[in-house]
Amino acid sequence: MRLSSLADYAVVILTAAARHPAGDRLSATLLAGETGVPLPTTQKLMGRLAASGLLTSARGTGGGFLLAHAPAAISLGQIVEAVEGPIAMTTCVDETRHDCALEGACSVRPHWSAVNEAIRAALGGVSLATLAGTGPARTTMTRTTEAATPAVPIVAGAIA
After folding, report:
1. Got the DSSP string for 63-90?
2. Helix (H, G, I), strand (E, B), or coil: what is residue 132?
3. CA–CA separation, 58 and 64 (whole Å)
4. 38 phi and psi, to 5 degrees?
5. Would you state the CATH architecture of domain 5-85+125-132?
6. What is the pLDDT of residues 116-159, one digit of tens each?
7. The whole model's pTM is what?
8. Which of 75, 85, 63, 86 has its CA nearest to residue 18?
9. What does the pLDDT read at residue 142?
């Protein structure tokens, strides 16, 4: 699984915002300059992030954007879903879509929701504070199954 460029840029923009003092009103121009993300892309993403409730906006003199929550309360999963929509590895888990030729005989389809939930949980376990370097340096999540699967660390900063 690979994040889209827009999701990656959203993470970069929000980590830059999280490094500012709480309450600072930030502009798209400021964050584009700090991150190197092109201004039109930054403006588009800040609109999406505000629409999803991760940023709040204030108009007028002294206006700008603020994080809607503390960085520790915003997860990587929330950022990805704000830009890309619900996290799903396959489209067959969407009950409204029927575009898979194997759908009628697929024995794996009932289990994809468990995979999707595991990915959501992993992304949900990494906070914006961690990504911004203002929280714990590392978040490690482990998962065990009957097959004794080894733990797979999720390391902050692994998003590129």
Report:
1. -EEEESS-GGG-BHHHHHHHHH-S--S-
2. helix
3. 5
4. -55, 145
5. Orthogonal Bundle (1.10)
6. 899 999 999 999 999 999 876 544 444 444 443 444 444 444 44
7. 0.77
8. 75
9. 44
